[in-house]
Design goal:
Shape: extended
Number of strands: 0
Radius of gyration: 15 Å
Oligomer: single chain
Distance between the termini: 37 Å
Number of domains: 1
Length: 33
Amino acid sequence: MTHFAVAEAFEGNSVTWMEKVSDEDYATGPTEG
């Protein structure tokens, strides 16, 4: 198996991380919005 990924960097960053999620929040899953 091969995995190949290409990402464009914007201002030197290819990813923008948001807030951390607790294990409890992750296990709960998404909320209806």
